[in-house]
From TrEMBL:
Coiled coil: none annotated. It comes from Hypsibius exemplaris (Freshwater tardigrade). This is Receptor ligand binding region domain-containing protein. Keywords: Membrane, Signal, Transmembrane, Transmembrane helix. Residues 1-21 form the signal peptide. The lineage of its organism: Eukaryota, Metazoa, Ecdysozoa, Tardigrada, Eutardigrada. Residues 121-398 form the Receptor ligand binding region domain. The chain crosses the membrane at residues 484-507. It comes from the Eukaryota.
Length: 539
């Protein structure tokens, strides 16, 4: 009898540990491509299709990058299954409607359509809906990579454990602060072209920059001017001449041309004054800054362009590589055949689409590395673990080029500054900046370096100082007829109060004209809440 009990106990122990081992095996998503079964990875992209508003975050532009991302991962890791699902919502036909509906869209997918045997990853451009997406992804431990949207909360690892961003858009106010400090320009004149057709990015950048300049020790005068009115332009130039020698221009190339012609007549394009324009990247949406319009005054404008600097908030060289150019051609072909795109290839929002493709690559690499490291994945979507493995790393060999991810999970940007090369008749880069994984007083930091030894400014290597010709008090140049809106002379609070009227006008315009505004903060837009029905498609 004791022997029978002992024998039964032994059999029970063997059975128990066998079952426990099987359970442990089942509760891991395995798939290293050798002895383990393949893993199915599903990428989910929320958003909308369409070209009506030329919104760079439209899936009509970015779905082709999801496709090429899948192709790349299938090529590199054919032992696994890589698929994608697009989630759209008829109640969200464009960016302003996404924040109020995206949580419902994701919830409906997660609880009614998601296959729990797959590893789910969210890769999507996103407009201003990053916060609700982050809330959903964090609660469900899903890796979320947005290729356009980023938000302050992404810096908080507790609030954003699974959210990363490959956004190509550097913060305009941080870049301006860094550049002006680097050039020792402590007083500037900022002007926004107030014409009705002004691209909203310029209004947004103007607002962001002018409300932050005093925080980095820069005095400024801010003006809103209609550059179609010669009298207003001349009056603005008179005020500028009395306040500074550095003119920050926020507007389209045509407005700068008008400004330069007027400045030429006033003798203000001989090298003593600098006119700094800004673009997110070179694109028809923002216009191309050039003196060549086949107009009678081209030569006069060419001479004036020697006083122009152009700040681009991306490193254009990255998008000129052979690899990205090959991808761009694929994106154009796919968008035409699969998404009925009839736009010119130059209309492609290349930085955003490249960032979407890069996000796909980063996510795929993280999955493969996790499988190799652990021999499998724990049950669930493992979003936090995957996000942690991507943070604080440099990826030199992506198909989309070199990408640096900071410790907080956002791309570290590269910036370029160009001046006019008289011999070639073009604006050429002479200075670049690299963002560091370090924040000073809450701002991003950049290291600037010159990229050429050639003369960059009217045959010289030195840019003009910012102090006005007539001194900081401007007494000798005082015109007696001021149109300026706000002058910061030490108190940032005074600047903010004086700019309230401008910002109020911009907030109203944001509701009407929605071109190129996808990086605006959520509070600048009104959204429509409501339930949505889901339309999905798979690749």
């Amino acid at each position: 009898m004791p022997f029978a009990i002992l024998f039964c106990t032994l059999l029970f122990s063997l059975w128990f540990f066998s079952v426990k081992a099987n359970i442990a095996h089942v509760e891991r998503l395995t798939g290293n491509g050798t002895e383990q079964s393949p893993l199915h990875i599903e990428f989910v992209s929320t958003g909308f299709f369409g070209y009506d508003h030329h919104e760079p975050t439209s899936l009509s532009y970015n779905a082709p990058a999801v496709t090429t991302g899948l192709q790349r991962l299938r090529q590199l890791y054919p032992q696994h299954r890589w698929t994608s699902t697009f989630i759209t919502d008829p109640q969200s036909p464009s960016c302003p409607f996404m924040p109020g509906n995206v949580y419902f869209m994701l919830s409906q997918w997660y609880y009614s359509r998601r296959n729990s045997s797959r590893l789910s990853i969210i890769v999507t451009p996103a407009c201003t809906e990053g916060s609700p997406m982050n809330e959903f992804a964090g609660a469900h431990n899903i890796l979320l990579i947005t290729s356009a949207a980023a938000d302050l909360e992404i810096r908080d690892r507790q609030r954003s454990p699974t959210w990363l961003s490959t956004t190509p858009f550097a913060s305009a106010n941080a870049v301006f602060c860094s550049l002006l400090n680097n050039l020792n320009w402590t007083t500037v004149f900022a002007s926004l072209d107030s014409q009705e057709k002004v691209v909203m990015y310029h209004a947004y950048a103007f607002m962001r920059v002018t409300t932050k300049l005093t925080d980095c020790g820069v005095l400024f005068t801010a003006s809103k001017t209609s550059y179609s009115d010669d009298a207003s332009v001349r009056q603005t130039l008179g005020e500028f001449n009395s306040k500074s020698r550095v003119f920050l221009y926020f507007g389209q190339p045509l407005g700068l041309r008008i400004l330069l012609l007027a400045a030429t007549e006033l003798g203000m394009t001989k090298g003593d004054h600098a006119y700094l324009a800004v673009v997110p990247w070179s694109s028809p949406a923002f216009g191309y800054f050039t003196w060549q319009l086949n107009a009678d005054d081209d030569e006069k404008v060419k001479e004036a362009y020697r006083s122009v600097l152009l700040l681009s908030l991306v490193d254009e060289e990255q998008y000129g590589s052979q690899s990205v150019r090959n991808l761009a051609q694929e994106w154009v072909n796919i968008s035409r055949t699969a998404y009925n795109n009839t736009e010119l290839p130059s209309e492609l929002p290349l930085p955003v689409v490249t960032a979407t493709h890069a996000a796909m690559e980063l996510a795929g690499i993280a999955v493969i590395e996790a499988l190799a490291r652990n021999g499998g994945l724990a049950v669930g979507d493992n979003g936090k673990m995957l996000a942690d493995s991507i943070r604080n790393r440099t990826y030199p060999d992506l198909q989309a080029g070199l990408w640096r991810i900071s410790s907080i999970g956002v791309v570290l940007h590269n910036i370029q500054l160009a001046s006019f090369d008289w011999e070639d008749g073009q604006l050429k880069v002479f200075m670049k900046a690299t963002e560091m994984d370090l924040r000073v007083q809450g701002r991003e930091t950049y290291i600037w370096r010159k990229t050429t030894s050639k003369p960059i400014w009217h045959g010289r290597n030195v840019l003009p100082p910012a102090v006005p010709v007539c001194g900081l008090d401007g007494a000798a140049c005082y015109s007696g007829n001021h149109r300026w809106i706000a002058q910061a002379a030490g108190s940032s609070a005074a600047v903010l109060v004086a700019l309230t009227g401008i910002i109020g006008v911009f907030a109203q315009k944001f509701q009407v004209q929605r071109a190129v505004w996808w990086i605006l903060e959520p509070q600048t837009l009104s959204t429509r809440n409501g339930k949505a029905s889901i339309n999905g498609s798979r690749v």
